Amino acid sequence: MLRRILIIARWTVTELLRERILYVALLFVAVLVAGSCVLTPLAPGAQRKVVADFGLASIDVLGVLVILLSGCGLVRREIERRSLEVMLCKPLSRLEYLMGKCLGLFSTLCALVGVMTLLFFALAMVSGFGWRVQFLWAIGATLLELLIVASLAVLFSVLTSPMLAAFFTLALFVAGHLQETIVRLAHNDAVDRISNAVRWIVPSLEIFDVRAEVVYGVAIPRSQVLGGAAYAALYAITALYLASLVFRRKELK
What is the reported pTM? Predict the structure, then answer.
């Protein structure tokens, strides 16, 4: 099973790296990171925090862009090319196929995030603000968040067209970051009950947003790191399993 998943993942990485849109997104975010140096004069005394926050946020933006532009059409492209029918004729289950697709997408994201991290490191050193090892905690949390978003993209790519899949994925991404804020501001029992029900569907992505803690030097509890990793893995596996249930009933046309 693992061997088949890794083969699909490798093919997916190769397919994604051939897409020019990937490099356009990388260039766009690289310009954003470099542009943070222009903003530093607007924040006297907080230049280091501006560069760090902007750089870490840009890495998150890159990952989400790649998922929306490339990840949401992974399954649909295979169906349109008729190559999926050939693969599924082999001893390959649909769950294995989807897990391989998600793993390939996530591996590509890891590679791109690695490139952006090196760019961020170079920018921090050249600008004189220095590099802090704590930045890696925020980048690791971003990768866990992107794992969840990638699994949602694969789920929606099975259910609908790439454009709608991108819309639903982005909607859940935004909702995942806003649900805790809405609950805190509402102070309403009805909102709390609705939020508790919605939490079973909408991912709690705010737990991965540790940029502020890292930028201001606040220690991140180990329990939060381990809990976030377990939550991301469980959510991704659940999303892919649901996608496989739908995929079994889907006609490959």
Answer: 0.85
Beta-carbon contacts of residue 133 (< 8 Å; ≥ 6 apart): none
Q: How far apart are CA 133 and CA 117, in angstroms?
A: 12
Q: At 120, is the secondary structure helix, strand, or coil? A: helix
CA pair distance 171, 145, nearest whole angstrom? 15
Measured at the CA of 63, the angle between CA 60 and CA 67, to 5 degrees, comes to 140
d(CA 196, CA 100): 32
Q: How far apart are CA 58 and CA 80, in angstroms?
A: 33
Q: Rounded distance, CA 214 to CA 135, Å? A: 6
| DSSP string computed for 8-60 | HHHHHHHHHHT-HHHHHHHHHHHHHHHHHHHHGGGSTT-HHHHHHHHHHHHHH
Tens-digit pLDDT profile for residues 140-155: 999 999 999 999 999 9
Identify which of 200-204, 219-223, 227-231 has the greatest average pLDDT.
227-231
